[in-house]
User: What shape does this take?
Amino acid sequence: MRLGKKRYYLVGLMVNGIFAFVITGIGLVLNYLLALLVFHGGKDFLTDDLENTNMLTSELSWQYDHTVLTMLIVTIMTVLLATVFSLVCYVLSLMFVNYYVVYTVAFVIWFAQIISKYSTTYLMQPLIEYGLKYQVPSAVIFVAISGAIIGFGYWRMVIWHDDRL
Assistant: This one.
């Protein structure tokens, strides 16, 4: 192998991250543009039921007032989450030989973060009543867990290496 272990690991992360970022970004932007074309002139998100309830917090009200900006923020967050999780899956595929194990471990990691009190889905859904008090911890937990896995993968595959790379 012409690349060293460290360079192989980092180049793999970079290529995987760029690919995931571009593919997810194109899909979500295309989805949003097609929704604008198909539902052009339709009703807005705010209904009479929501205007008169106590569920309309200041954060949710801001999201309804700035739906395009909200969609842009949510799209960026979703693309970043997908990119980071693709890096986690890449690291898992380097650490485990059997792809059944990779799928299982990746599923458990993702599902555990979705069912928790601070679910990662709060970062990917626009116009929800969960505000920053749930979204910020969710992002911190996701980045910490993903960073720990990527860091452990670096340690396992580059520093403590058993010639399986």
